[in-house]
Design goal:
The protein contains two helices and two strands, in the order αββα. Helices cover about 50% and strands about 15% of the residues. The longest helix has 26 residues. A two-stranded antiparallel ribbon has the order 1-2. Strand 1 and strand 2 form a beta hairpin. It has one domain.
């Protein structure tokens, strides 16, 4: 018998946001479904601030991955 694959409900980003918005001044939760749909929830109210946080996070991730490669080589 084939096991049914469990999927994450699309509203899970809202649940995670609600659980963490009082702990941090800025929270962005990004969910990507198996079929490629993106759900982004945030407690930030202005688009420029959301864009700034996403850019900073992606830069920090890139810098971390780059430094990790240099250490292992």
């Amino acid at each position: 018998m084939a096991k049914k694959k469990e999927t994450t409900p699309p509203h899970i980003t809202s649940v995670i946001l609600d659980a963490n918005k009082d702990k941090f001044p800025a929270v962005i939760v990004l969910g990507v479904s198996e079929d490629g749909n993106i759900n982004l929830d945030s407690n930030l109210t202005t688009y420029p601030m959301i864009q700034y946080i996403l850019n900073k996070a992606s830069f920090n991730l890139f810098a971390f991955e780059t430094s990790k490669k240099e250490v292992t080589e």
